Structures are given as structure tokens and as C-alpha cells.
Amino acid sequence: MSMAPAEYGERVPEWRNTFSSWRRRLAQRAVHAGWAWVQRTGSVTADRPGRFRFGAMGTGTRLAFPLGTVFGEPWIHLGSHCIVGEQVTLTAGLMPDLDLGPDPILRIGDGVVLGRGSHVIADTTVSIGSDCYFGPYVYVTSTNHSYDDPHEPIGKQWPRMEPVSIGPGCWIGTGAVILPGARIGRNVVVAAGAVVRGVVPDRSVAAGAPARVVRSWDPVAGWQPPLRTPAPVPIPDGVTPEQLLALAELGEGAATALAEPAPKGEH
Asked: DSSP characters for the chain?
């Protein structure tokens, strides 16, 4: 009695249509090229604002496509050379088509990076200083729900609003939440997933939910508690990008040796 090939553990070769496979690869490339064109064309800049009329938008600033929810843009001021990632929400006011007065509600400084999927909700004033970097999915809001009346649905109770300010040079980690009334100082690190309210002083690290200061800078003693990682090796003057790539292939020891001064008499 003959046995089927599968019973002997043999694999029956699959029939492949070379022409169909070639067509799929060509279609895939076309889709990727088309989507890249859509992203370039759909991005928003000062030169190509589309339907948006921001109160101010500096040179080199770009909002990536696809955008998140954007409204109240006449009261949104964006500095120069900002990068706003895909699906980032920027809003001024509780809802579209409100007259919010003569002054901007949301101010974003120069060189700010807002990571993909982040939300900045400015129902009252929100200020983000220059050179701040946000990871993905950061949530900043100047409004919080109130629950004073235990019998009324929370969503129907009038919210509370407090201004938010984030100083220049900050790093806001992935998934962090900045609540109404937060005042974050200069060069602050907010850890991923932290929930910040209240005041965070300059040159400190805040982590946790609710966030607390876990490390701070002392002008005499330096970082307290001390950093657990060595300081980065500075790049010597005159080193080219090609040399840096070559060093990366050789490993960390080569980069350290390059940064150390040569002994006297050696060139």
C-alpha cells in the first residue's frame, strides 16, 4: 500500500506564480511611494498652511501628516524649526469657532519636538519653552474635570482650568501626563509615564504618579543622588562624520581613546 508523501514527513512544494509575486512587489513599492508623497504634500508649514491659519508659525516648522485634531489655531503660536509628529493634537479653547480674545492661548517656542500621538489641550494658557523634546503620546492639558456634585455625571460638570508652563530645554518622556497648574522649570527631565502637577524646579528629574523629584542638580555637589552612568565622552574638535562611523564599528574603547589626550611627544 503506497503512502502519501506527507506521511513520510516530506514537504509538498508550493506552486508559486512568479508573475503574481512580481506584481505584488511592484504594488507594494507603489503604495509606499504614494504614501510618502501624501505625507510630504499633506504636511503643514508656514509656506504651505493649507486650511490652517495659525496665529504665528516660524521658519522651518512642520506639522507631519496625518495630523491629529487641530482647532483654535489663530490663538496657537508656533516658533521656528519645530517638529510636530504625526497624529499630534493641538487645540486652543474648549471647542472650535470660539473668540478667545487678542492674546495667544498656546505658545510653543523655537526648536520644540512633539512626539507622535501627543496632545496639547490649551483651554487656558499653555506655554512650552524653546528646545523642549516630547516623546510619543505625551498629554498636556490646562483643564480637568470636576466632580463636586456627586449626583451629576462628571462629564456634565463645568471643568476647572489652570495655566500650564514648561520651561525651556526640558525632556518629557513617553506617555507622561502634565496636569492643569503644572509649572515645570528649565532643563527638567519628566520620566516616561509620570503624572505631573504643581511645581517642578529647574534642573531636576521628576518621576512617578503623582510625580515627585527624584534627582536634582546642586551647583557644588552636582547631581544628587549621583548619576549611575558615566558622563558621555565629548567629541573632539575636527572629527568628521566618517571617522565617527568608523569608531562606532570599533566599539566604545576606541571612542574613549580618541577623547583622551595623547602622551607628550606622541603625534
From this structure: ----GGGGTPPPPPP--HHHHHHHHHHHHHHHHHHHHHHHHH-EESS--TT---SEE-TT-EEPSSP--EE-GGGEEE-SS-EE-TT-EEEESSSTT----SS-SEEE-TT-EE-TT-EEEESS-EEE-TT-EE-TT-EEESEE-----TTS-GGGSPPEE--EEE-TT-EE-TT-EE-TT-EE-TT-EE-TT-EE-SEE-SSEEEETTTTEEEEEEETTTEEESPPSSPPPPPPPTT--HHHHHHHHHH-HHHHHHHHSPPPTT--
